[in-house]
Amino acid sequence: MTGVVRSRVSPADLLRLGVFGLRTRPGRVVLSALGIAIGIAAMIAVVGISSSSKAKVDQVLDALGTNVLTATQAQGFGETPPLPDTALESVLRQDDVESAAAVGKVTDGAVYRNEFIPAPETKGIGVLAAWGDVPKVLGGAFSSGHWIDDSVDAPPQVVLGADAAEALGIDRVAADTRVWMGGKWVQVVGILKPIELADDLDNQVFVPRGLAEQLGFDGAPSSVYTRIDPERVEQARDLLAGAIRPGSPQDVGVTRPSDALAAKNATNESFTGLLVGIGGVALLVGGIGVANTMVITVLERRAEVGVRRALGARRRNIRDQFLVESLLLSFLGGVAGVVIGVGVTVVFAVGQGWPVAIPVWAVAGGLGATVVIGGVSGLYPAARAARIPPTSALAAV
Amino acid sequence: MTRAPVPGGSGPVLSLRDVTKTYGDVGALRGVTLDVAAGELVAVVGPSGSGKSTMLNIIGTLDRPTDGSVSIAGNDVATMSDDALSGLRAAHIGFVFQHFHLQAGATAAENVADGLLYTGTGRRERHRRAVDALGKVGLGHRVDHRPNQLSGGEKQRVAIARAIVGDPTILLADEPTGALDSASGAAILALLRELNAAGTTVLVITHDLELAASLPRQVRMRDGLVEDDSGARGSVAASAADLAAAIGGVS
What we know:
The complex is a heterodimer. Chain A is of the alpha+beta class. Chain A has helices spanning 11-23, 26-64, 87-92, 134-138, 162-168, 209-214, 233-244, 257-300, 302-311, 315-352, 360-387, 392-395, and strands spanning 68-73, 97-106, 126-131, 142-145, 157-160, 178-181, 184-192, 204-207, 223-228, 252-255.
């Protein structure tokens, strides 16, 4: 054979062909890359937001410490007695306990903005009698004012939890800031910020035991909060129940709030799995969209394929051209998706006051997935294009 | 009229022997024998349905004959794989289409450079030769224009430049003036003559008798057969059998 060589196209030329093929049909590129972009954006955002939330929890735990233990009346089957009145004193006698405070639920207590509010409208705000400096033990902080005088004979006064203050419409403490409790005005001395380690306290108000008794308090603490020597937390966990109820430690439940915080994040993870699944479905649909677009493109470009075959393109040159185009289309969607996903994560995390944490594996995995999707989606259309007969250029008008 | 064979090859650049092509029961070609020597300018003329398009497909190796043998630049098409035929087209055959078939988004130079895309030529070299080829067709000033900025005649010139940029052994033009007004058509024909004078073998497929008559050799097709071949009649090299066949077709 004289002078017949194999037709070949360099990778750079293939890439150029792919870019050219997409550049001349921008509208279609945007629409079909959108599916991929949404899928990748969803996955990146879900993973990013969940990582940022976890980073925030870690940050909070670092700040608050993981050495707080809470003792309550044991939850379980059958009746258990409430904690004894002496619970706080018993706990404070333990060597491992660095500090402790307690609250007791005032069952019939309620707090109102003023005397005209009907009694049933409590907004779900509970009243707690306080022993010791509760926010200090729990790592809480004040947005305004200070803690109550917790001695038995202290004058009537109240500290509002963050949610309770918001519900009552009070955002700062002034000399005349008062609430209506048990038929009289009570001075507000402090407003707490949200307490991360015990968010059930946010919708409560705290009063001295003297005032609590006037409101019908039975004198029994419902929760004892303790801060333990960090080295001795596990041992203290077992000791606390015995210290509070030497005869029947099983009636006392001891929990570690930092575990609950971490667990809350863990439950988020199953939710994350669901969202990642949804993102996966979006990706699948996006992949089908790319395949669909490529099939249409191939149908429209029979004449072009015919011309290229006439110019000397082999079947595989044609196949490669459309495969590269499909890969590029999908990858373009992936890059757009990463940008959108990172943007959503940053906006959301910053809005929540979280640190921004986007794992590199999520970005790399997302882009890798688009390459796979583009390849798989392009296989069939590219094979179809390669089968277009060379006579198509002449047949087409 | 005939010139010396292509260097490196022997005999005609294009040779069909008893070529038939049937689609189902329909015989589009019913035994065509044709030789084209290097440097010829040949018109294949016939009404639609005469089989001239089928013959073009087979000469261009875009399609294979049902029977008979086809040889292009010394290569026996029947023994070649699809990939090898692609290589043959890239190296030896230039195509010009009635409807130009240019890439709408690409410049004239890019379109012409595509004619070398499958030959393994580097990108800079492709561009350089594309600009050269555009110069040869009189479009040196339109290198960076896109097809929608060009007239019909200019588009066809770009297409011709694309066909000749690889220096093909044979240039196949399918109704090259069919989509053009008569002035542009005449200019394109003049260009093809010019290219032929410079050494390119050109085969023009047309249904335009007047155009065909203006070319040195006419092959008249009818009902899948060569009805008349002015080259075979006039050439001393033509065999007695060819002559007899031609006369038989006329009578």
